[in-house]
């Protein structure tokens, strides 16, 4: 548990991160989806695997422009969706996109820090049947805390789906080095220790873990089940 000083430090880190994300995406958000579709691989695979049957509640952590929420809402029309993001600029774009596609009654959005959020305050719901994080952990300081926060918000028998950059382990070293250097310009850091962190979460919480490298290690996909 954080003491008051620790809580203040955490709030400061969150505020700095939110301001940084707004600074990066205030302009980029307008072209984000058009450009990212070429290298944020595995997102639609994850959405197809959600199995969000009618009545399911689904939360996306780090929803950005709302692209994934909209795709998931179309793929699973009987489910209800919520999305949170730390960037006010991204949420503005997401809100406009959700309304434009007539999904305002099925998709709720809130600004919150992935490492410490109150789902009840944000959405009037404490637990979700499905939670997903798409290329988010590689951008979150204290990303391990975000995984634990997501696990706290999982309903009994629920599932958490993750897709993010892998370590390019079966791709040429030059490609890996070039990609990582380019990603660093956007404060993106692929998490090489993602698997052991998830294994620890699964053990502590008595969950099962499925971990799948995709596209020769370009991306990693994981599912934690309660």
From TrEMBL:
Gene3D superfamilies: Vaccinia Virus protein VP39 (3.40.50.150). Pfam families: Methyltransf_31. Residues 54-180 form the Methyltransferase domain. CDD domains: AdoMet_MTases. It comes from the Bacteria. Keywords: Methyltransferase, Transferase. One of its GO terms (biological process) is methylation. The keyword Ligase does not apply. GO terms for molecular function: methyltransferase activity. The keyword Methyltransferase applies. This is Class I SAM-dependent methyltransferase.
């Amino acid at each position: 548990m954080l003491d008051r000083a620790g809580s203040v430090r955490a709030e400061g880190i969150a505020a700095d991160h939110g301001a940084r994300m707004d600074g990066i995406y205030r302009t980029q958000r307008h072209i984000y989806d058009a450009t990212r579709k070429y290298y944020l691989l595995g997102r639609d695979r994850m959405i197809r695997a959600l199995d969000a049957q009618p009545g399911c509640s689904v939360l996306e952590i780090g929803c950005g422009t709302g692209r994934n929420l909209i795709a998931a809402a179309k793929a699973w029309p009987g489910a209800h969706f919520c999305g949170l993001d730390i960037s006010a600029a991204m949420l503005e774009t997401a809100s406009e996109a959700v309304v434009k596609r007539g999904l305002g009654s099925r998709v709720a959005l809130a600004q919150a820090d992935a490492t410490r959020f109150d789902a009840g305050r944000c959405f009037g719901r404490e637990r979700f049947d499905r939670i997903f994080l798409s290329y988010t952990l590689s951008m979150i300081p204290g990303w391990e805390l975000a995984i634990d926060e997501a696990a706290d918000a999982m309903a009994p028998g629920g599932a958490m789906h993750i897709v993010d950059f892998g370590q390019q382990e079966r791709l040429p070293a030059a490609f890996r080095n070039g990609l990582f250097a380019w990603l660093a310009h956007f404060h993106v850091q692929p998490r090489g220790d993602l698997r052991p962190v998830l294994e620890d979460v699964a053990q502590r919480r008595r969950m099962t873990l499925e971990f799948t490298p995709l596209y020769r290690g370009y991306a990693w996909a994981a599912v934690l089940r309660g």
